[in-house]
Amino acid sequence: MAELADRLADGEVSTEHAVLAAHRTDEAYLVPSGWPLCAVYAHSTADVVETMRWATEHRIPVVPRGAGTGLAGGALAEDGAVVLSLERMTAVRELSVDDRLAVVEPGVITADLARAADGHGLMYPVDPGSAARSTLGGNLATNAGGFRCFKYGVTRESVLGLEVVLADGRVITTGHRTTKGVSGYDLTSLFVGSEGTLGVITGATLRLRSKAVGPRATVAAYFPDAAAAARAPLALARDGLTPSFLELIDEVTLRALHAWQPLDLPGDGVALLLAEFDGVDADRAAAETGRLCGKLNAVATQVTTDEAESERLLDIRRHALGALERMGRTMVEDFVVPRSRLGDMLVEIRRIAARHDVLIATVAHAGDANLHPTLLFDRTEPEIPARVWSAADDMFRTALRLGGTLTGEHGIGTLKRRWLRDELGDDGTGVHQTIKSALDPLGIMNPGKVL
Asked: Is the pLDDT of residue 129 over 90?
């Protein structure tokens, strides 16, 4: 470790117990993690290069991490590993208005880039729930989505190119900074979502967009249950209405929110669909959405263009997890089904909850049918109870049976490894392992994650 510290240009090595304790896990706190050998705080790409060269020479595993906000256990340390923290690589190297792009380091907080772009009349559209805390490196590693993904896509749609340090310390650049570019294989997409298992992302060229013109408009529609609310996204799509934000909050979650901070609800046991529109015709689209929800038997509908009221409504969704965490320990899941099967999946979740005697509260990015069921259990439980694992197993297998996928934005990490082969198949898993072996022949890059 003294040798490693000497080789770093600006970075630091720490073996302090408190530092290692803070860096050995992420927000998948119920999954066991090991004790790392040390933590490295990289300040530059050169620090990452030297760390990976040293790790290759000594056959030491490396776990890259950002802010540690991941929910799938993708940044869990193992015994004897180096935790490579990128949180101090915080430079926005370039922000070009003419080219509509930003070149950033991985430690930049997502919301900070959004504010920087906003100051130039642009927007960075990726808006995960953890945007105020999560880093862009973590977003890239998991291909994060968030509230605006229905209209603007997940992280991958905003990435033009990357700077990546490979396991042996070589540095490659992928992609381009032009509006078009198809030279060679799409290595950019390969590394986005790879969860630190193929290389360390030390820089990214990200696509920015023009800010929407005009005030936003928000719709809150209350339905008898979540399955009834799930009919609305398909109806919106058929009518050509594309909200920037389309979120579904089921009855269990809404009760938890109401218990925490009383809401003005049109009855007990309702589910809520929230839609936000931006652009010049936002008010027209919102009014049409309100009428459409009424035709779909919403019990109450509110449409507003008032900025403060819009924020109040959208905060209902943003505070959902916090309200649920007040009820007990939480296991937050993430999977996607075809949009046409969203209602079916919500019905199945209720059946699974009853079958396993587990309280399950669900929110969803309804536009792309990305569900986040939260399984709740008693705080006194020392680990995830067997019945909770069984309920999760039923949910994932049901999602796959309905034509879905195991994760839309949280990643596989350690929590979902057991189900990945079910989705990929034996041959698909083999291809993944071949790619992993080619780029990381010693198996030192974030071992134990994904595969």
From this structure: no
Q: What pLDDT digit, counting tens, does each position of 430-440 carry?
A: 999 999 999 99
Same domain, 113 and 24: no
- Running DSSP on this structure, what letter comes out for residue 213? P
Q: Does residue 279 surpass a pLDDT of 90?
A: no
Q: What CATH number corresponds to the domain at position 359?
A: 3.30.70.2740
Instruction: Report how far residue 397's alpha carbon sits from residue 170's, in angstroms, rounded to the nearest whole number.
Output: 39
Is there a single domain that holds both residue 42 and residue 69?
yes
Q: Is residue 449 part of a domain?
A: no
| pLDDT at residue 29 tops 90 | no
Residue that terminates a domain, selected from 321, 351, 382: 321
Kindly list the distances between the CA atom of residue 232 and the CA atoms of 113, 293, 296, 343, 359, in Å, as whole numbers in the listed order.
33, 7, 7, 10, 25
Most confident of 66-70, 102-106, 265-269: 102-106
**H-helix or E-strand spanning residue 255:** helix 251-260
Contact 6, 43 (CB under 8 A): no
- Burial class (CB within 10 angstroms; exposed 0-12, middle 13-18, buried 19+) of 435: middle
Please tell me whether the overall predicted TM-score, pTM, comes out greater than 0.90 for this model: yes
Residue span of the structural domain in which 39 resides: 2-85
Whether 129 maps to a domain, the answer reads yes
For 448, list phi and psi in degrees, rounded to 5.
Answer: 85, 0
Q: Is 267 exposed, middle or buried (0-12, 13-18, 19+ CB in 10 A)?
A: exposed
> Is 99 buried (19+), middle (13-18) or exposed (0-12) by CB count in 10 A?
middle
